[in-house]
Write a structure and sequence with these properties.
61% helix, 2 domains, Growth Hormone, Chain: A
């Protein structure tokens, strides 16, 4: 009997794996962090998109004065990174810093709509630079803390894609809004939307990254005791674990397998499912597929301490756990790769012996 995952199909699981998500709860939080990157880019895009409009049309500034405005924006970013962030991080949580930065950006939008002269505009631009840097920096660090070391390049690429997509789409929408609705209306609407989005800042807090335990805890590989060890490229490899679970532990076991499924997909598996025997209810077979033997070994090396705790809990539910540390485990490699498990010299000798025997049996 095939037991379907209770948190979506394998497509969702593979997306979770792409984000390096060890559990569904952490997955929602990581997705929220990436979404925050996109929304931050979308709102930040209003600054470079509308600053020239404010400067050239509203204040009637010259090109050189517009350059000063962007210089002030850059100076604000530097001040935010050098002076504001070190002090603020000692006083507030990452989520609180992003909220304060967003509130400052709301003030920037409102001030841009009514700014009276160049000198006030320079201060507003500097405030925008500070807000931009603080918000982006805290989101970036939260996303980096939320994944293990080996997956940080993957998360960085995803963050860049999300933030730049927000900037690109935001630039188009803010430019269209200023043209169709007017400059003041666009800035006021942006301030209202950004303020409204802060309602989700508490339930989707990025503070979760500080409590994650992502220190490596590689699994023991002494159970890989085969007559002939596979080569790194051999595959695909199927790993099967057999469990015998008490009826009272069934729901807990399946809940843990939901989490383990995401762990394995994140760490390299391409397929994962759980079967229960019809003849012997309570007997489960957990099967996963990886592309090669080397990828399976990488799965063991990528396990973190938090994930190891989940795996140990699931293994401990097997009624044979008192006699053995882990459930019964089997490894299978595709039959088309079996020849790779044998020594090539031995195969050549067998072929040559067969040819010599054919030659010897030929008539005169």
């Amino acid at each position: 009997m095939r037991l379907r995952p209770r948190h979506g199909g394998d497509v969702a699981g593979k997306f979770a794996g792409c984000l390096a998500i060890p559990s569904i709860a952490d997955g929602n939080q990581r997705f929220a962090a990436v979404l925050s990157f996109y929304l931050t880019g979308w709102f930040i895009a209003a600054v470079p998109a509308l600053v020239p409009v404010v400067a050239l049309q509203h204040l009637r500034l010259h090109a050189s004065e517009l350059g000063l405005v962007f210089t002030s924006l850059g100076i604000g970013s530097l001040l935010g990174a050098i002076l504001v962030l070190p002090y603020a991080r000692a006083k507030a949580t990452p989520n609180m810093l992003t909220i304060v930065a967003s509130v400052n950006l709301v003030a920037v939008f409102l001030l841009m709509a009514v700014v009276p002269n160049l000198w006030i505009f320079l201060l507003v631009a500097a405030l925008a630079g500070i807000s931009w840097t603080v918000s982006a920096s805290e989101l970036w660090i939260a996303c980096q803390r939320a994944v293990p070391d080996w997956a940080r390049g993957r998360m960085t690429a995803l963050n860049i894609m999300a933030s730049q997509a927000g900037v690109a789409l935001g630039g188009i929408l803010w430019g269209w809004s200023a043209t169709a609705l007017g400059l003041s209306q666009s800035l006021l609407g942006g301030a209202i939307l950004l303020a409204a989005s802060l309602v989700m800042a508490i339930p989707l807090s990025i503070n979760f990254a500080q409590s994650l335990n992502l220190d490596p805890a590689p699994l023991d590989t002494r159970f890989h005791n085969f007559p002939l060890a596979p080569k790194p490229d051999d595959g695909p490899v199927t790993i099967v674990l057999e469990y015998i679970i008490r009826p009272e532990d069934r729901e807990e076991f399946l809940a843990l397998q939901d989490q383990i499924r995401l762990i394995m997909l994140r760490n390299g598996a391409t397929f994962f499912h759980v079967d229960e025997s019809l003849e012997n209810p309570g007997t489960f077979r957990v099967e996963q597929l990886v592309s090669s033997w080397a990828e399976h070994l990488r799965q063991h090396a990528r396990v973190t301490k938090a994930e190891s705790v989940i795996l140990q809990r699931a293994w401990g539910l097997d009624i044979r756990h008192v006699r053995q540390a882990r459930p019964v485990e089997h490894h299978y490699v595709g039959v088309n790769r079996i020849s790779a498990l044998r020594d090539f010299g031995q195969i050549r000798k067998e072929i040559e012996a067969a040819l010599n025997q054919d030659e010897a049996t030929k008539p005169g």
